[in-house]
Amino acid sequence: MITARAVDRHVEQLFEILQRLHSAFASANIPYRVVGGLGVFLQISQRNPLAARLTQDVDVAVNRSDLESIIEAVKPFGFKHRHVAGLDLPVDAIKPKTHSAVHFIFVRERVRPEHLEAVPDFSDPTVTEEGILLAPIRDLVRMKLTSFRLKDKVHPLDMDSVGFITPEMEAGLPKALRERLEQVRNEEAQSTGAE
Q1: What is the CA radius of gyration of the chain?
Q2: Alpha-carbon distance values, 92 to 64, 110, 178, 187 (Å)
Q3: From the CB of residue 81, how many other CB atoms can be counted at a distance below 10 Å?
Q4: Residue 32 in contact with residue 62, Cβ under 8 Å?
Q5: Distance between CA 193 and CA 3 in Å, rounded?
Q6: Do the Cβ atoms of 165 and 141 come closer than 8 Å?
């Protein structure tokens, strides 16, 4: 059955999972940054909630050397660790049928061998009112342009649309990432010009 509350439930589920993860990391003093679509969503929401694009999962950047500590830290907060298809995933043991997945990615490592850059090391985070640590905009832009899947191409455009990608930030990107940013801008201009 279709319900208008489905989106609300999904958002509540994402934030409930995120809050438990944050509590686990904070209790064990483990550094992390929220990245991926949720990191972009939260950053854009502060500037223009209507421009924020919802995501389906929670991506968290951590140090690989902290993985054993993380596995222990998340247990009391209702997560079980699984290593599936090369990914480290904390599985929700409280609500096992949850539709929101959690993925750990590792700083200073490439998520995939073909990626142009590694996940940026921890830099000063954007801290939400709840204390959750988000990757800063410049790191999110680099990661999205590095990944460059179809679903990742929209996030730099979203960040650009609210003024997050400044000329200084753009100038600080490596040439290959500046070219990708220009490519997504051109594709967007062509698609909106064709309507």
Answers
A1: 17
A2: 21, 26, 38, 38
A3: 16
A4: yes
A5: 34
A6: yes
Give residue limits of the domains in the chain: 6-193
Closest CA to 140 of 122, 156, 124: 156
Asked whether the predicted pLDDT for residue 193 surpasses 80, the reply is no
115-124 pLDDT, tens digit per residue, is: 999 999 999 9
Both structure tokens of 68: 């054993």
- SS3 state of residue 165: coil
Give yes or no for a contact between 103 and 39, defined as CB atoms under 8 angstroms apart: no
**Is residue 96's pLDDT more than 70?**
no
Q: Is the pLDDT of residue 21 over 70?
A: yes
Q: Does residue 6 sit in helix, strand or coil?
A: helix
Asked whether the beta carbons of 22 and 77 are under 8 A apart, the reply is: no
Q: What angle do CA 36, 149, 166 make, to 5 degrees?
A: 60
Backbone phi, psi, residue 30, to 5°: -105, 125
Q: What class, spelled out in words, does domain 6-193 have in CATH? A: alpha beta
Instruction: Give the position of tokens 């073909």.
Output: 114
Q: What is the mean pLDDT of residues 130-139?
A: 96
The answer to whether the CB of 61 falls within 8 A of the CB of 68 is no
Query: CB of 146 within 8 A of CB of 179?
Result: no
Digit-coded pLDDT (tens) for 82-92:
877 777 777 77
